[in-house]
Design brief:
The complex is a heterodimer. Chain A is an alpha+beta fold. Helices cover 38% and strands 29% of the residues of chain A. Chain A folds into two domains: 118 residues, no CATH class; 34 residues. In chain A, a hairpin with a 5-residue loop joins strand 2 and strand 3. By secondary structure, chain B is mostly helical. Chain B starts with a helix and ends in a 5-residue tail after the last helix. The chains are: A alpha+beta, B mainly alpha.
Chain lengths: 159, 218
């Protein structure tokens, strides 16, 4: 019993996942705004992001149903949250301000269509997998250890 | 028959919740992958808070009826509750480091959660070291009743003292700002259901074990 349990835990530890599968359908891109495309009505249609490796990525900004959500800070650190349905003019102003200041952004997009745009996340969100693994490992070890303790007590009681 | 069915249902719920956590739910943009700790932290926090209320209720019933099975149930709930509290505290500590930059702060929500864990420990230590008998059972029941006061304080702590800990994301206290996306809510509720089923099952086994051992509850 214990042999199998420890073998299972050892395999779990050695083969800890290097990626989360649910992460595959959305992408994070960080960089500064190189260009902003605005239509005749003042709505932002898209932005051109330059990543830190020099590559450019075209991002479409959505309005209407499921609009792109923004969470952008000004130079004083005041955060503005909204989308183009709420205030299209403000979106353009905020993005131009970021372009002027070379303020880096993080974009969550799905096939080039932006879902969320925020100020660049300084923490490396991709590399904190070890914390996630530690949490799940301890939760399950605690659970199985407790089940083993109960099992021992049951044996003692049945004797 | 019922036991096997219960095992299958709770096992399926646990597997479904793990599948949803790692394969289905989208990654939160600001915190990244580590936000998935939510689906462990909240269900175990829920279980540990429900457990202390149930311990208090069973203790109250013991004080009123003097039936030993209520006392036995309170002890079983407390033993499972302390394991849930350990997982809640550990997952919270591990989550705080990448998100807040520190392992622990002395803010209200964290401190009251730690107090809950210490109440469980005090209750179980008292039961183990005090000589068995009616006096021990009565004093333990009173400790449990006093300890249950902590549970609503934990729940309301983030609302009353607004500090680092986020406010409630589901339930009556959740606001539009604090609420999660529908996929995250579904995953969270599935995890809560899985942990609750697991919790009830283990409490039942623990109760049967304590009943068989008997001497503890003399």
């Amino acid at each position: 019993m214990y042999k199998y349990l420890f073998s299972f835990l050892l395999i779990l530890f050695l083969t800890q996942p290097s990626q989360i599968f649910a992460d595959g359908h959305e992408e994070l891109v960080s960089g500064v705004i190189n260009a902003i495309s605005i239509d005749a009505n003042g709505n932002v249609e898209g932005i051109l992001i330059m990543k830190n490796d020099g590559d450019f990525v075209n991002i479409d900004i959505k309005s209407g149903e499921n609009p792109t959500e923004f969470g952008l800070e000004n130079i004083a650190g005041d955060r503005w949250i909204g989308n183009q349905n709420d205030n299209a003019k403000e979106v353009a102003i905020k993005l131009k301000d970021h372009q002027k200041r070379f303020a880096p952004l993080t974009v969550l997009h799905e096939e080039g269509a932006a879902k969320e745009i925020t100020d660049m996340e300084n923490r490396n969100v991709k590399t904190n997998l070890s914390f996630l693994f530690a949490c799940f490992a301890v939760a399950w070890v605690a659970f199985f250890a407790y089940v083993l303790i109960i099992n021992g007590r049951l044996r003692k009681a049945s004797k | 028959m019922f036991r096997n069915l219960y095992l299958i249902i709770s096992g399926a719920a646990v597997i479904l919740s793990i599948w949803m956590i790692f394969m289905w739910v989208p990654t939160e943009i600001n915190q990244g992958l580590v936000q998935r700790i939510l689906y462990v932290h909240v269900p175990f926090a829920w279980a540990s808070m429900v457990a202390i209320i149930a311990v208090a209720f069973a203790s109250l019933m013991f004080l009123v009826t003097k039936k030993t099975y209520w006392d036995n149930l309170a002890q079983s709930l407390a033993e499972v509750g302390v394991v849930c509290a350990v997982v809640m505290l550990f997952s919270g500590i591990v989550w705080a480091k990448p998100v807040w930059g520190i392992w622990w702060t002395g803010e209200a929500k964290l401190t009251t959660a730690l107090i809950l864990f210490l109440i469980y420990c005090a209750y179980l230590v008292f039961r183990n070291y005090f000589p068995p008998g009616d006096a021990r059972n009565r004093i333990a029941a009173i400790i449990a009743l006093i300890g249950a006061i902590d549970s609503p304080i934990i729940y309301y702590a983030a609302q009353i003292w607004q500090e680092n800990h986020p406010q409630a994301v589901v339930g009556p206290l959740a606001t539009q700002e604090s609420s999660l996306s529908s996929e995250m809510v579904i995953t969270l509720l599935t995890s809560v259901l899985a942990v609750t089923l697991m919790f009830i099952g283990i409490v039942w086994v623990q109760y049967q074990t304590n009943k068989l051992l008997g001497s503890n509850n003399v």
